[in-house]
Input
Amino acid sequence: MKNVIQNLNKTFDNKVRLGIMAALTVNAKLSFVDIKNLLELTDGNLASHLKALEKAEYILVAKLFINRKPNTTYKITELGKKEFEAHLKALEELINQQNTVRPSENG
Amino acid sequence: MKNVIQNLNKTFDNKVRLGIMAALTVNAKLSFVDIKNLLELTDGNLASHLKALEKAEYILVAKLFINRKPNTTYKITELGKKEFEAHLKALEELINQQNTVRPSENG
Output
């Protein structure tokens, strides 16, 4: 049995981060409040995961002012897209491996 | 966009735990060393995750003595099987949602 977890990306080892990347893959950009409502999270929880993904350069933050009100939006980077797709592919391999192999009696 | 992460199980929020559950789904039972080699982990790292999965009653530990030598094996519980399958199904939904929806320009 191949090591099914070696291609999984530790940075995505959290369902909130999976949710953020999934949301930013299917939306060109989203605000903090958009993501918070979409994933039903607290401010603090979301902020810490956004920071980690930003640090890994998987997402970009754009801070604008609209009618003198701060408007912060997030978007996925090319690196983020590439790494997230690879992570999903590795997850798919793990899932497919479960579906094909029946439990074997060993030892 | 439905909240794709609500059905993900926090206990499986770690690739090592995904690997352990995957291995114990396709093998009736495995020893500590089996799992350690399969997933290329350190003793300490593996032990902490096995403990958490045992505490959640997703795996069972059997401690035997073979020729007076301790032999500890692990196997998945029915609860573990059920929860892991639900987790994989939620991951599959997240992945499929990525494959179907193209990035939309919004706002």
Remarks:
- The longest strand of chain B covers residues 59-66.
- Chain B is about 50% helix and 15% strand.
